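Incident review: delayed structure delivery

Summary: a single-chain prediction request sat in the queue longer than the usual turnaround. Root cause was a stuck worker, restarted by the on-call engineer. No data loss occurred. The affected request and its eventual output are reproduced below so the record is complete for anyone auditing the incident later.

Affected input:
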Amino acid sequence: MKIVANEKQIKQKSLIGQIASFASLAILGVGFYLSLTSRDPEMLGFMWAALLLGFLLSQFGLYYGNRWSRRPDKALDQALKGLDDRYAIYHYTSAATHVLVGPAGLWVLQPYHQMGKIVYEKNRWKQKGGSFLQKYLRLFGQENIGRPDLEIESELDSMRKYLQKKMPDAELPPVQAALVFMHEKAEIAAEEAPIPTLLAKDLKDYLRKTTKGKALTPEKAKLIQDVLGS
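Output delivered after worker restart:
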């Protein structure tokens, strides 16, 4: 499998996440120190402001850390290891973040790092159960699962528009999507989800099994790969 990644952007965004995380710790430390030592009512405002700013910065750092410092691109590469050179994966080089192109079709892959049980019910993805530590991390140390349906639809729409602009005269294949959970302690119970929801270790087999008869021709795959690689 050919791998194309925007290493410059990855390093820049990873650095931003690290700076935000360190800054949040420093500011939270100041707020905590003021809460223990200051009895001046006028300092209470500074204390709460520091705690709020530190918390917001920590969430910002967490967001960037999950998407850049943790290198989800490397985790996806590892999950797809063994695919032959007819496949190519593109990280941070086009309108969608992670794009796989090959005989199995054109896929937008959305990685997640959440642990615990991932379920789909009442038209939503949710995290359930887990140990006390997992619940604690979910509240304070782990990014919320959010709305994968909205995130992936935005990615798909951007990808379709990108290809239409780059290949105005070509008949474009359907752009498919999958949510990929990377954490080793994640488990999936989302068979009814409208978007394939998979563990990373199951991704490669899923692509091979479910796309029989829907393969891209070598010529069409090569054309899309040339566009994304440029």
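Verification: Residues 2-69 form one domain.
Action items: add queue-age alerting; document worker restart procedure.
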